[in-house]
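Intended use. Records like the one below are meant for learning the mapping from a protein sequence to its folded structure. Do not use them to infer anything beyond what is encoded.
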Amino acid sequence: MTQLARRLGTTDAVVIGLGSMIGAGVFAAFTPAASAVLPAGTGAALLLALALAAVVAYANATSSAQLAAQYPVAGGTYVYGRERLGPWWGYLAGWGFVIGKTASCAAMALTFAAYAAPPGWERPVAAAAVVALAAVNYRGVTRTARLTRWIVALVLLTLAVWTAVAWAGGTVEAPAAAGLTVLVPGAPGEVVYGVLQAAGLLFFAFAGYARIATMGEEVRNPRRTIPRAIVLALAGAVVVYAVVAVTLLAVLGLDGIAGTTAPLAEAVAATPWAGVVVRVGAAAAALGALLALVAGIGRTSLAMAREGDLPRFLSAVHPRYRVPHRAEVALAVVAVTLVLTVDLRGAIGFSSFGVLVYYAVANASAWTQDGERRLYPRALQAVGLAGCAVLCATLPLPAVLTGLGVFAVGLLVRALRLRRHP
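Structure written out for the chain above:
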C-alpha cells in the first residue's frame, strides 16, 4: 500500500490544529451561542457554556491523542472505531466527519467571501477560495503547514489589536450590565438547556484538533508528537476564545452579542480602521480553517476508500506530492457545488452534530484501550462520551433531525453495498 510521507513536526501539527480552531468560528460562533442563552441566562451563562465546551473538547482531545499514538495512520476516528469497536462504528464516525466537514468547507468559504468579496460576488469568490486552497493541499502537506503558520500569525495579531482597541476605545459595560455577576436570572431548567445548547454550538469552534489526528500518517514520531500537539493546540484555542468572550461581554453585553452577525466588528465600530483590521483577520481565519478542513477530510476519505467504504479510486496517493490527490479533488468539486447552490446558514448546527457523533465513537474506542497504550484515565473518556451525547441532544432541533437523517442514509448505503458485495 502506498504510504504518505512523514514530514510534520510538533510545531507544524500545533499550527495546523490552531488554524482549524482559531478560524471563522471566533468571528461568528458567539452570536448563535449568545442567542441560545439569552432567554433565561446572562453573560456568565455564556462563559459557563464556553467552559463546558472546552471541558468536553479536552476529554475528546485526550481520547484522540491516546488513539492516534497507537494508530498513527491517516483517517482519525474512522480508523480507531474500526480497530477498537468494529467496521460499522468506524464507518459511522467517518461518514459523519466527511459529510459534516464538507458542508463546513462551504461555510468557511462563504464566510471568507462575506468579508472579502464585493456585494453580489460572494459565491464566485467563495468557489475560487475552495479551488485555490485545494490546489495548495494538492502540492503537498508541508506547503499546507507553511501557509497555515502565516494565517495563524495574522489572525492572532488581528485579535490582539482588536482586544486592545475594544478595551481602550469601546464603552465598557459595568460587570452587572455585562451579565458577569449574575448567572441564572431565569428558570433553572431554561438556563441549563440554554447553556447546553450554547456549549454544543461553541464546540464547533474547538473541533479543529481532529485535523492533527487525521494526519497521523504524516507526522514524525507520532506517539510523542500527536498527543503533545493536540493538547497544546487546544489549550491555545481555549485561551483565545476566553479572552474574546470576556471582551465581547464587557463591551457589548449579552444582548449586543446576540443582536449582530459580526460581534467583533460591532465591538470596535467606533474605530473605523479597527473594523478593517477585523475584516482582514476574519477573511484570513476563514481561509485557515478551510485549508485545514481540506487536508483533514482528504485524509479521512483516503482511509475510508482504502477499506472500500468510499470508492476505491479515492485511495490514490500522488507519486510526487505524496497527498491523497483524488480525494482532495473530489472534495473540492463537492464543496464548490455546495457554495454555488446551497444556503448553509444552518451548517454550524449540522456540523456540530456530526462532529459530536464522531467524538463519541472516539471516546468509546479509547475506553477499550489498556496496558501501555493507555495515556489518560478512563474517567476522561466517560466525561467525553457523556458530554457528546448530551450536547448532541440539546442542539437546535433542525440540526438534530437533519443529522439523524444524513446518518440514516449513510448507514443504509453501507448496508446495501455489503449486501451486494459481502
